[in-house]
Design goal:
Layout: H1 6-9, E1 13-15, E2 21-32, E3 37-45, H2 48-57, H3 60-68, E4 74-77, E5 81-82, E6 90-91, E7 99-100
Antiparallel strand pairs: 1-2, 2-3, 3-4, 4-7, 5-6
């Protein structure tokens, strides 16, 4: 088992296996057990800051139009992310093979 302080990797720029920029690590989806948390996936978003700022700065109709044009975030499985260098996370797959969040 490996331990990693999540606050150190949240917001980090993420690249794919070929070095293409995907966005920033915005969220981590995990299940809490009795003694530890198990990470299921990572959410990598190109416009995460825009989403957060627009939540309070724009009307809902303006926000919907703006965000409708932006691509959906990537959902990267726990086993598809290389965190050996936590300051430079990278996926093990090219972006074309990564899942998009569908909500």
């Amino acid at each position: 088992m490996r331990e990693l302080e999540l606050r150190r990797i949240l917001g980090a720029k993420v690249v794919d296996s070929e070095g293409a920029h995907l966005g920033r690590l915005e969220e981590i989806e995990a299940e809490r057990g009795e003694e530890s948390c198990v990470i299921n996936s990572y959410i990598v978003e190109h416009r995460g800051l825009l989403d957060r700022v627009s939540t309070w700065a724009l009307t809902s109709s303006m926000r919907q139009r703006l965000l409708a044009k932006s691509p959906r975030p990537y959902r990267v499985g726990w086993n598809q992310m290389d965190l050996r260098d936590p300051h430079h996370p990278r996926t093990l797959l090219p972006k074309e093979l990564l899942e998009r969040v569908t909500e």
